[in-house]
Amino acid sequence: MGMRRGTNLPRMGDFNQSVILEAIRRSGEGLSRIELVEATGLSAQTITNITRRLLDEGLIAEAGRTINGPGKPRVTLRLVAESRFSVGVHLDPAVITFVLLNMTGEAVGRRVVRTQDRDPSAIVETMAKTIEILIDEAGIDRNLVAGVGVAAPGPLDAAKGTVIDPPKLDGWHRVPLRSVLAEATGFEVTLEKDTTAAAVGELWTGDATSEGSFLFVYLGTGLGAAAARDGGVVAGSTHNFGEIGHIMVDPEGPPCACGSRGCVEVVCTPQAIVEQAEAAGVFDDEPQGGGANEVDERFLRLCERASAGELPALGVLRRSAGHLAVLISVLTNVLDVDRVVLGGPFWGPLSDVYLREIPEPLHRRSATRAVRTLTVDGAVVGDDVGAVGAACVVLDAVLTPRASDLYLED
Amino acid sequence: MGMRRGTNLPRMGDFNQSVILEAIRRSGEGLSRIELVEATGLSAQTITNITRRLLDEGLIAEAGRTINGPGKPRVTLRLVAESRFSVGVHLDPAVITFVLLNMTGEAVGRRVVRTQDRDPSAIVETMAKTIEILIDEAGIDRNLVAGVGVAAPGPLDAAKGTVIDPPKLDGWHRVPLRSVLAEATGFEVTLEKDTTAAAVGELWTGDATSEGSFLFVYLGTGLGAAAARDGGVVAGSTHNFGEIGHIMVDPEGPPCACGSRGCVEVVCTPQAIVEQAEAAGVFDDEPQGGGANEVDERFLRLCERASAGELPALGVLRRSAGHLAVLISVLTNVLDVDRVVLGGPFWGPLSDVYLREIPEPLHRRSATRAVRTLTVDGAVVGDDVGAVGAACVVLDAVLTPRASDLYLED
């Protein structure tokens, strides 16, 4: 085991500063110094010293006074939303989504660009240009942008900042996305798995109900998982936590390239569900091919038909909810989390059927059904969860207290 | 998200004290104050103050002086092994194992008691008596025993300190083991899942090579998993991390009570492997029934025959290694850990075949094979890993620095 390092006063000060910033951010309406004492457990003197520093740096501002009986009025301290920004980029086989967030996590800019049939250098150029446009349109000072977060399909080589072999992006073998985008933009770039970024976004923008631990299941072109506990997302030792493509969910399912059958990758993806719908005769026309846009279009048609009450379509989605319940039970039984959150670009149209169909089989399969019932919710952040999450990864590094920041460096 | 609490000087002092104690413990030979400055990053003044307190409490002692050129000789500080003890108890369907560990994690006492056909209150009485005998035999002061750790099969109701429905222990429905054993012994009792305890034992007694994260797969009457990262074992939100019984590993496997087929519980347990051996004609005699001792005996015979090179026996173990490789790949792909450690009471006789057969299919199925090769090792602690681990859970609470200890209380 690596030796633990001690801590000292400057480290403690930085940590407490993050604790105070987080308390103010999460309060929404702002907090007085006395409320900060209650919320953080820190002494009044520490609160006074640290809030003075944060006021000097422009990260917080005094926002009104409240008079509560006799004595000095309380000054409310609020986060200055426009004091810092971050850019989030989500690289997906079909589209690249860009968002610009302010310090409160609010999107002050958004752009979507199609990615079909483009090589890596063209895509990086498009990214750099779009980021510039986003910042220009928002009319903000470039120096206030803390960095660019990129969410990409895993697995990643996080040490090198490369995307290894993203599905359906030909020519993307081991592209050193972090360094080339940093060079093209001049910003510091953070690369994270799309699923991990999405969970950071959920944790960051979620309200107080996100207390405790949760499993995030990301429904994109592929499926991925992430887990949050103790207020942070588990990235894994190589930032590749949550690769779930070859978990078996249907022993009667189709064979998989891995040698098994009925894996998530051949049963639960939008493409697999579209193929199940085709086999069940849901569509009137012939399959159009497996391109990302074709799959998207047919997948949405399937969901619309299910919503309209067409039984073959509904049957396909119900069976697919059953498969997802098996997957989720495997993950929650292993990870022992309190809640399940479902999100990602394909979540929206599935949400009605899945929220109705998943809880019962999940509870039946839960190893902890004797001690609790797992709740299943849709993500707070919508379709842009990958991009918003990537931007939150950057804000998170600025704002969230992390106990590991307390350790003295080697 | 729960609001983070700040930290302050007394908290920081306690944390740094644990950091110093851990550094001294892990050094084995002891460390001088100057070496402690290097190891922990703390100032010489802090090291002097904290080591004075530890000397006063008798937890460390001065153990010789080293003269290194001119200047003052360096005084080596060592852990006082006999300054504290802890008891570990492993409740298993076949046997209860008891160990008494000193502060260095060394066993200074051990006892094994058969558990067949006993009701909960008789077993608790046996436990309490055996713990007294263990302490008496070792001739140590009862007041130096920091507590009793109990490892039991999951799932547990950790909040209530109860074992819910341990396999093959009739009458053990929701037994409040923690409180009844505390009452019977007068000691503070900690209840932990056997698999989690085993991983704590591995982390605690393992050498420096256990740096980074690992997956621990526990091969007992049932199979369980645990994971360690950042120097600690992940317990899960209800202390039920690592329930893996219904992960599918063989789509052609036998049906399972859960409705699927080929789950770990019906494919990978010693009982399932013995049944596969029976079906393959490995044994000359008829099955004897499914009692824990009968399964143990036939399982050992299977392993002996495989070691002797008998092909039917070897074939059964090779196929079973393949199934375990599927399970391990599911877990390592989800958890993104650096290493795999296999242990538990059934590990020893399987180790030769499994260490030879598992790495190749595991690598082939690894989502991160492009960035690393997972290593597979046997546990450092042997058959007693559950009991040793349970005792380490108690020592761990005394000795291991935990960043969460820094937070101020609500």
Automatic annotation (TrEMBL), chains A, B:
HTH marR-type domain sequence ranges: 16-61
Arranged from A to Z, the UniProt key words for this protein are:
Kinase, Transferase
Q: What is this protein called?
A: NBD/HSP70 family sugar kinase
Whether Transcription counts among this entry's keywords is: no
Q: Which GO terms describe its molecular function?
A: kinase activity
Family, according to the entry, reads as follows: Belongs to the ROK (NagC/XylR) family.
The record's listing under Pfam families reads:
MarR_2, ROK
Upper lineage: Bacteria, Bacillati, Actinomycetota, Actinomycetes, Micrococcales
